[in-house]
Amino acid sequence: MDTPELILYSDSSPNGFKITIALEELGLPYTLKHVNIELGEQRSTQFLALNPHGRIPVLVDTATSVTLFESAAILLYLAEKTGRLLPSDPATRWSAIKWLMFHTSSMGPILGQRVHYELFEDSADHAVVERYRRLTEETFSTLDNQLKDNLWLAGATFSVADIANFGWLHIARIIDFDFSRFNHLSNWYERVNQRPAVQRGISLPQPATGP
């Protein structure tokens, strides 16, 4: 059997799940190498040679000699490589890219900071925690409004935008950052979560269990 051209270095985290979901959705063969963050493996010399910032995920395409970090960049690369998960017509394509960038600039950073200050920072200022709770609610509301009249974030087509935002919403659900009052967002979450490839993706390299 041929060795897969794609090698994914990842762990069970929002950013990691985005790429395992995408690879499973695309049906691409790949080798998964578990980088255990709890053990500090992301700071090893070998891993820092792949990503000097010491963060997962990293994708290596041995066929093209391309090495990528940053989950949004990897999602775009996989979409271009396969011609899937990114709509072809310009309006819908740019809608998908727009909501992918929304995840990069808002969803990920805001939820990431809320997770840190609310769950891991013992001396966190109450005002800081409340700030990130408010920003999280605003992010949920923005997504909810977009999904009011759309099946998926870019419209009628499931795309990289859905995968990217779901990665963080999946963790939000696990750690009880409640978004159930946002009906359109909650329904979208269930639609994404029911996809077989998504179920496989969030189990690799192992399921997330919360803090």
Q: Work out the number of β strands.
A: 4
Q: What fraction of residues sit in β-strands?
A: 5-15%
- What is the SS-derived class? alpha+beta
CATH topology of the largest domain: Glutathione S-transferase Yfyf (Class Pi), Chain A, domain 2
Please summarize the sheet with the most strands: 4 strands, mixed
- The termini sit apart by 39 Å
Main CATH class of the largest domain: Mainly Alpha
- Supply Rg: 17 Å
Written overview of the protein:
The chain is α+β, with helices and mostly antiparallel strands and 211 residues long. The protein has two domains: 6-85, Glutaredoxin (3-Layer(aba) Sandwich), CATH 3.40.30.10; 90-195, Glutathione S-transferase Yfyf (Class Pi), Chain A, domain 2 (Up-down Bundle), CATH 1.20.1050. It is 54% helix and 9% strand. Strands 2-1-3-4 form a four-stranded mixed sheet, with helices on one face. Helix 4 (90-120) packs antiparallel against helix 5 (126-146). The longest helix has 31 residues, at 90-120. The N and C termini lie far apart (39 Å).
Reconstruct the topology from this structure.
Elements: E1 6-10, H1 14-26, E2 30-34, H2 45-48, E3 58-61, E4 66-69, H3 71-82, H4 90-120, H5 126-146, H6 160-174, H7 183-193, H8 196-201
Parallel strand pairs: 1-2
Antiparallel strand pairs: 1-3, 3-4
Helix pairs in contact: 1-3, 1-6, 4-5, 4-6, 5-7
Describe the structure in brief.
The protein has helices at residues 14-26, 45-48, 71-82, 90-120, 126-146, 160-174, 183-193, 196-201; strands at residues 6-10, 30-34, 58-61, 66-69. With 211 residues, it is of the alpha+beta class.
